[in-house]
Amino acid sequence: MPKRTHRWKELPSSVPLAQRDFVLRLRELREVSDRTQAQIAQDIYLAPTSLSNHFNGGRIPEAEHVKKLYKILRDEAATSSRPMPCSLPLLLELRAKALVKHCACCAAGWPDATASAPELPSTATGSPASKPVRRRSRRPRVRLSTRRHGISRTPAQAEVPVPPSEGDRHLTTPADAAWPEIRALAESLSAGRPRDADIMMWSAATTLSARDVQIFVAQCRAVGLKEAADQVITNAARRETQAVLTIASALHSSEQYADAGLLLAAAAQEDRT
Fold it and tell me: Is 44 helix (H, G, I), strand (E, B) or coil?
C-alpha cells in the first residue's frame, strides 16, 4: 500500500527556531500513519483540534501526550514495515528545548535573539556605559515578569463576574493563560458532542500538571463552563494521593478555595469506594 503524504500548513514566522525543530519532527512522525488525525487523537485522549494545534506550532504538547503518540505510531509503523524517523528520547529532548522559549529571561529558541540585540555605547576606556544598559534591560524585564506571574490583575480579569453563590472563588490566573482547548471544549459541548468533551476533560484532569489543572479549571469558570470545571476536578480526584494534594495546593494558592474543597471531598469519596 503506497504511503500517503500530508499537506502541512506553513509554520508562522512567530514560531521560535527550537519549537520549529520540534514541530517538524512531530510532523515526520505523523507521516508513518495513514489514519486520520481524529482517529489518532482519540487514541491519545486528545481533541482533534488540540492535536492539530500541536502539529501547527500553536502549543507544545504535554510529555505524556508525546509518549502516547510515539507509542501508537511506533506500533502502527511496525505493522506496515515503515521506519521511525526519530527516537522517543530525541523527541522529548527537542520538546524540552522548545519549552525554553517560554522563559522570559532567556532568549534560547528565538531565531533573532542575537541579531536584534542593540549595540551598547562605550565609554572612553572601552567598557559599556552603565546608564543605557540599565535602562534598556530593566523595563522589558518588569513587564514580562508581571505578565508571567500574574502580579497584578488586568482590566480584563476585573470584568469577569463572580456569581454570588461562588463568592469564595477569586481567580488569580493570568488573563492571557487561556488555551485553545477551552474554546474546543465549549464548541464540543454546544454542538452536542459529549464524547469529545469527556475526552478533553479526562485528559486535562489526568495528564496535566497541578498548575495547568488549576489554570484549566479557572478558565472554565471564567467562560461559564461550571459543570465542565466540576467534572475536571472530579476526574482529577482519581489520581494518586500526592498528585491530588499538589493540585489542591495549587487551587488553594490561587484562592480557588471551593474548588480545592471539591477536589478533596471527591478524593475522599474515591477512597471510600
Answer: coil
